[in-house]
Every structure is written in structure tokens, then in C-alpha cells.
Amino acid sequence: PILSMLCKMMMWTLLVVVSVCRATAMDVPATRTRVNRYVGVSESGLEFGEGKFPGIPFKDYVQPTNDSIAYFANAGMNLFRLPFIWERLQPVLQGPLDDAYGKLIEQTVQSALSHDGVSVLLDVHNYARYRGSVIGESGGNVTAADFADLWSRIATKYGSTDKASPILFGLMNEPHSMKTTTVLANANAAIAAIRTAKAHNIITVCGNIYSGAKSWTKGGNDSNAAVMGGIVDPMDNFVYEMHQYLDADSSGSHTTCTLTNVTQAMTDATVWLRSQGKKAILGEWAGANNTDCHTGVESMLQFLSENNDVWEGWLWWAAGPWWGPYMYSVEPNPPCAGRDKPQEAWIAPYLGQKEAMPERMGTFQHLVDSASPEEAKAFRAYLDSASRSFP
Length: 391
What we know:
The protein has helices at residues 2-23, 66-75, 86-89, 99-113, 144-158, 180-196, 224-227, 263-276, 291-306, 342-347, 365-370, 373-388, and strands at 38-43, 79-84, 119-124, 129-130, 133-134, 167-170, 203-206, 238-243, 280-284, 311-319.
């Protein structure tokens, strides 16, 4: 009996940890209304190890975890942006896609799609470059045709004739330091290749200057507003992808947030979208854990909700297993998947329906029912004590 009780206590300890971790995940009201079509996060890792090609998996770069994806999907997120590197997926221009790296992408895509109502945004995270050469630049080593070939191959694998396919195509992350007309030409070449492959998937299109929402109308005749309206999509199934951080230079590299009211920063791009009859998604944004950033995050979420006629949704930057103490990371803290980062509580009210979590006692009721009265009393006291020991 003593040994039996000790064994049961050990089992109870394990189950308490599992239960408390589950019960504390995103501890917010279970019923919420999602105002924007897409709410989600970038699952980062496969794009790590910049400049290390092909790189060594789990040393230079890492695959997002199934647990992380499940955590956010259960919390109500319905879109995962998956950044990856062109040079790893296609080591030789216009050559075949790499099987090993492609398998990591495929596994992550399927992990996300295993959750009901979830979509994936495939994000070529290359800043409009391949091995340092700007795509489509006159006299350069990488042409728009090379870029189109990449997307033809991706579309052949992931394309669908369903315009509402859960796999979205993010053409290119944050082009910069180039002519906006070149960004447009590259995008149109890739879109034509995707549609020729009979893929009707939603496409997201970044502009120049890191695709900043605040700067979208800045730059005169070479501004995104002046040029990027020239996107040609035979399926008319694309949205613009803009990014907007809350720090002073919009770079997303500072802990301080000066953009505590986003209205001025976001209004010009919003007006432009309405004038074009187009929509956008805020593909990257975030704030660090402090009062000003909290205010800015709330302001952004409210703005996107109020202007959901043109803003399809948003993606927080970022989650992923290697971020550690990174100021914007919302990757759950170990050891419990339910130990949220502070920013989780800020964004939680704007997510969709949360998957129901089991009641803490319900997880163990079968043990209580099968125990002797003495054991049941001891178990309840033990559970109550152990539960209070978790933050």
C-alpha cells in the first residue's frame, strides 16, 4: 500500500504538470469574435543562418515545432507565416527544389493544416535578393525569370484551383534599396508563372522600402503608392502585404515604441487601398513588453479591426524555437506550453474562437473515481497544493 501510494503520487505529479500547463495556456475568455479574416504569427526558424548555404539543419536553422503551432492554433490563430530561404530551397537558379529542405517546409505546412480552419503563408524571406544579387536589376546575375521559375515550381507543388486554398503564396519579403518599378516587374513575373501553373491561391505582394505601411505613399513617382498599383493578376486573387513596427524608425529593432497611436502612420496606406479597391495584410508587426508598446499594440489591433474592409488581418513577428529572450517573441516559455509571453494577453481578445481546454479536475476524475476514500482525499489535497505552486 505504501509503495502503491508512492507510485500514484508520482503519477499524480506528472498529470498535475500536464494539466496545469494546459489549463494556463492563453487564459482568456473562451468565446471571442474574430473581426479580421486572418490573425496569426510568423513561425520563424527555417530562415535562420543567413548567408550559410546550404547550412546544417538544427545547427544553422531550425524547423518550427508542432507543439508551438498547436498552441497558437488552439488559442484561435488561423494563419501561420512560414519564412524560408530561396538559396536553400533552390540551390541552383532554375534548378530543381532541394528535397531535404523542401521536406522540412512540407512537414511544417502539414502540421499547421492539421488544425481546422488554419492556413499557411509560404514566405520567401530573401529581401529581393539571391546570394546577394538584387532580383531583376539591370546587368545583374539574377533575373525576374529566375524568380518566376522558383514560383512556378512552388505553385506546381502547392497550387490549387480553389481560390480559397489554405496555402497562400508570399512572393518576397521586404524588397529594399532598389527601384520600385523593378519590385513590380519581379512580382508580375512571379504572379504570371503561378497562374500559368494553374494555381489560383491567394498571393501576398510586398512593396519596396521594406514594404512599410507608414512609408507606402512616400517617395514621389517611385513610391509604392505610385507604382505597386500596377500588379497584374489574371485571377484577381492577391492582397498587398505591408509591415509596420512601432519603434521610432519602424525597423523593429528597438524595445521602445514611439508609435503609441497608429492612426497617422496607417491612414495614408488605408486610404490608398480603398482608392485601388484592394486589400492588405499586415505581415509583420510587434512590440516589446512595456507600457508604451502595449498602448501601441492595442492601437494597432483596434485600427485593423475598425478598418477590416481593407485590412484582411495581421501576423505577429514572431514565434519559433530559437528566439530565446528576443523582445518580440511570443513563443511559449518552457517547460509548460501554457506559460504565455506578456504580449499574448494583449492580442488574445482579437483572436477567434479558442479551443476548449479541459477542466483541471476533469482530467483526473477517473483516478478519483477508482481510488479509495482515503486516497481520493489525499489526491484532492495534493492536486490543490500542486496547482497553487504554479504561476
